[in-house]
Amino acid sequence: MPPPTPGKPAATCLARHRVRDAIQQLILSGEFQPGQRLVQQELAERFEVAQSVIRESLLELQFCGLVEAVDRLGMFVSGLDAKGLRHAYQIRELFEGLAARLCCESACRADLRELAELARKIFDLASRGDLEPMSQCDREFHFRLVQASGNPLLARLTEGYQMLGMFVRANRDPRQIRDEHLEMLKTIEANRPAAAEDLARRHVREAWHAIEEQIDQGTFVPHWVGQVVEYQAAGDGGAKPTKKKKPKERKKTT
């Protein structure tokens, strides 16, 4: 995400981050539909914050690809389509390949142990059919891999496509995913940067191919993993979260 503006009060930055996350989750939950206009005044009243907070929150969501600006018309919820997903996966392949290469220099044994535990946990959850926690754990594995690269800028740059992980589940063989994760970690531990990068990029490509196949067959349905959190105003100028039930999944129409 773009860094906070220097000199801004901490309470304003905190409110912006919380409102941004609330709008983000309302988009991912389906309450805010693709193509829906996001009216700053209405959102400011809903969250009881200044319109400037809403405006900055929407700009951050635009950076992630969830919101798009239309000239002279305002901000709208972006659509999730195959083209946008493909672009995100192209970037993901490049960044995570670089992360795996850098991990050969930067990742410590504790990092690799934690990542191996996550890889096995992903497999265990998938084997039990616990798909939502499995998806969360898989996102954590890939985010921790990028963190272990030791490049904080790379970690920040991945935030845009990480958001799409909340929509997408590749539905691949859990055993194959586990084996790919562990093989990648083995090459990092062996300090083989070229091989680690190749395996990481191949892993991302395989995930995209699985999603692309679903799209071609007309069976791809975006998923939101987790609860929607809507923020209500707090007395300190920030906001406090209130949990909201996840809407029932809409039936697919033809």
Structural key phrases:
5 strands, globular, 254 residues, 10 helices, 2 domains, disordered N terminus, Arc Repressor Mutant, subunit A, 61% helix, three-stranded antiparallel sheet, Four Helix Bundle (Hemerythrin (Met), subunit A), disordered C terminus, two-stranded antiparallel ribbon, mainly alpha
Description:
The protein has 254 residues and is mainly α. The chain has two domains: 10-80 and 224-244, Winged helix-like DNA-binding domain superfamily/Winged helix DNA-binding domain (Arc Repressor Mutant, subunit A, Orthogonal Bundle), CATH 1.10.10; 82-217, Four Helix Bundle (Hemerythrin (Met), subunit A) (Up-down Bundle). The radius of gyration is 19 Å and the shape is globular. It has helices at residues 10-29, 40-47, 51-64, 82-106, 109-127, 131-147, 152-157, 159-164, 174-189, 193-217, and strands at 37-38, 67-70, 74-77, 228-233, 239-244. It is built from ten helices and five strands; from the N terminus they run H-E-H-H-E-E-H-H-H-H-H-H-H-E-E. Helix 2 packs across helix 3 (51-64) and helix 4 packs antiparallel against helix 10. A hairpin with a 5-residue loop joins strand 4 and strand 5. 61% of the residues lie in helices and 9% in strands. The strands form two sheets. It has a three-stranded antiparallel β-sheet with strand order 1-3-2. A two-stranded antiparallel sheet has the order 4-5.
